[in-house]
Amino acid sequence: MPHTSQRGQAMPESPIRKLVPLADKAKARGIKVYHLNIGQPDLKTPQVALDAIRNIDRTVLEYSPSDGIRSLKTKLAAYYHSFNIDVTEDDIIVTTGGSEAVNFAFMSCLDPGDEIIVPEPAYANYTAFAIAAGAIVKPVVSSIEEGFALPSVEKFEELITPKTKGILICNPNNPTGYLYTRSEMNKIRDLVKKYDLYLFSDEVYREFCYTGAPYISAFHLDGIEENVVLIDSVSKRYSMTGVRIGALVTKNKDVRKNVIKFCQARLSPPLLGQIASEAAMNTSAEYMLEMYNEYVERRKFLIDGLNRIPGVYSPIPMGAFYTVARLPIDDADKFCAWLLSDFEYEGYTVMMAPASGFYTVDGLGKDEVRIAYVLDKEDLKHALIVLGKALQAYPGRTI
Amino acid sequence: MPHTSQRGQAMPESPIRKLVPLADKAKARGIKVYHLNIGQPDLKTPQVALDAIRNIDRTVLEYSPSDGIRSLKTKLAAYYHSFNIDVTEDDIIVTTGGSEAVNFAFMSCLDPGDEIIVPEPAYANYTAFAIAAGAIVKPVVSSIEEGFALPSVEKFEELITPKTKGILICNPNNPTGYLYTRSEMNKIRDLVKKYDLYLFSDEVYREFCYTGAPYISAFHLDGIEENVVLIDSVSKRYSMTGVRIGALVTKNKDVRKNVIKFCQARLSPPLLGQIASEAAMNTSAEYMLEMYNEYVERRKFLIDGLNRIPGVYSPIPMGAFYTVARLPIDDADKFCAWLLSDFEYEGYTVMMAPASGFYTVDGLGKDEVRIAYVLDKEDLKHALIVLGKALQAYPGRTI
């Protein structure tokens, strides 16, 4: 039997999905599992998107252009303009989810051995796609004590080598919910300019900013227009993660030229998802506001509730729909597995993502979990009660 | 401006899609272009698949499991059984098109520098995905004179080095339409066994076999069950290339373990495409027979017509819906571009894929094109007339 690739072996398991088999077993035992592990909003997909699918009048579900349907790109450009992001249709390449945008960005910009600097904790799949591309993630660690603010410029500069090709940020941040300030974004801009780096900027949560502070896109930064590769997705803002439509946006023609070749190799992004996405761009302002208000309330509710559980601490996330919380436990991986395998409270348990998977530095995040607030308040309320009971019962508790 | 990746620069442009800008310009001039370049069937998608989309009753278009919806996998297993392919749901991983199955197969089995042997001409995107994975394609050249039969075992063995990790075949073949015989498949099996290689077997055209000869799947070969990685797609058999649903099928647990990690990184295959695909598996036998008969006729019609044009030669393809034909021209890349830029016959022209893109050996296929017979007979008839006229008018003609 031939041996498999070292690259494949080195790929991380998803911290968000690796516990799914245990969750399935818990469900098979009749236990109700609250999914706080995954960014799958429970909100209804906008009716206009569902209607576009239900009313589809095509008779052949055919390939679309490799870079996406033009009319979708036109709508995306108008959408970005509404955020003062000055791009044209030609700067936009439609991808199979934001995931593929990350993958193609790395493949197109980075060679094996190239390094990118990523503030951690970070979305685990950046590391996965870096490994796929043979690139190396150099982490700059942000800490829960400082609310996951951007580490100092000096910490970035310490990591810069001739191999450094880019910085990756996620803003608003998954998993921490942190929203970068203008001052922090300017620091990133200066670094990018000084060392002529790519700035990979994942901004899929831009609709989810809860403070008065403005959302600063990488495209709002002057003088690095050619360095920016923006990652986007319709998944979160229209509660339609399953359609698998995202976008890679860059003014850098050389990057686009490479990306298009990766696009051609996989032929086209999903047609039905593009149809749903184009329609979703007509979602009413009421839907968007209602969704926004719902997350504002859930956030307050979750963070208040978490911080009332003895020994638990969560900073207040300013965006996205996640928080990274510290728990009074020995090991979040063990705890999260135990919740599914050995615990129930009146027939319920909770599933969370151990934060260790969001750090590449060994040992970090050991007592932290990522919690997604994608359930309604009643479920969140009960999930918090279940979590509190679990923390009392867990053999590895530290208080 | 940071430089882009060498890998991205090395990626080939799709020979099937690279002429699209010229075709768009021709269309803008009011010229009707017959698309013989791309495997996009014109046949209607089965009504059951369209109905499943039109009647969708979900309110949230959510992530599916990373390896695909279980009920779809169950149907796929039953489908494979009908071809005497003995696999279970657990051996099947749903992918975003057959393209992703190729990509994940290479990423999971091959490391940078590893080699795979591929009979050429071959589907161009294998090379693209090999480059993405840092792997090296070693071509074994089959020739139009021999009807693109499998080259001798000796030619394979000459290429085997300690770096050789696998053989890739496409059966029935894209672009040649060749169908491997039992004897040829046994030779491949013996090589795979002798050198303990992976056998990557792309069998997406299995429904399209036009001779009495049986379709031999890689899974029909005894003693290499753990070596086989089968690539599949619903795109061609249900005329729904846009849904982007394929499958990677292997009994090799270690390979699956790696593949699943790549699946998790991209979260899930498209939900809507999976719903359409599951429904499509209930397509009536009548539809499948009608489609089959249609291709049988088109094939006869196209090949007869091609061989009647002076100086043109096409072998008779036994499967898929392509042929590689030799034309009396200096350079197929120039000719195919000229057809779109400089030629029209009564307002019509044809678009074909230059065969050079299906060879990795420089200079091969220079007077060959791939022609897809995915148009109805009336269009094919007229396209052949237009092609004949073009060959008379082309300045680089050789007769």
Automatic annotation (TrEMBL), chains A, B:
<comment type="similarity">
    <text>Belongs to the class-I pyridoxal-phosphate-dependent aminotransferase family.</text>
</comment>
<feature type="domain" description="Aminotransferase class I/classII large">
    <location>
        <begin position="33"/>
        <end position="384"/>
    </location>
</feature>
<dbReference type="InterPro" id="IPR015422">
    <property type="entry name" value="PyrdxlP-dep_Trfase_small"/>
</dbReference>
<keyword id="KW-0032">Aminotransferase</keyword>
<keyword id="KW-0808">Transferase</keyword>
<protein>
    <submittedName>
        <fullName>Aminotransferase class I and II</fullName>
    </submittedName>
</protein>
<dbReference type="GO" id="GO:0006520">
    <property type="term" value="P:amino acid metabolic process"/>
</dbReference>
<dbReference type="InterPro" id="IPR015424">
    <property type="entry name" value="PyrdxlP-dep_Trfase"/>
</dbReference>
<dbReference type="InterPro" id="IPR050596">
    <property type="entry name" value="AspAT/PAT-like"/>
</dbReference>
<dbReference type="InterPro" id="IPR004839">
    <property type="entry name" value="Aminotransferase_I/II_large"/>
</dbReference>
<dbReference type="Pfam" id="PF00155">
    <property type="entry name" value="Aminotran_1_2"/>
</dbReference>
<dbReference type="GO" id="GO:0030170">
    <property type="term" value="F:pyridoxal phosphate binding"/>
</dbReference>
<keyword id="KW-0663">Pyridoxal phosphate</keyword>
<dbReference type="InterPro" id="IPR015421">
    <property type="entry name" value="PyrdxlP-dep_Trfase_major"/>
</dbReference>
<dbReference type="GO" id="GO:0008483">
    <property type="term" value="F:transaminase activity"/>
</dbReference>
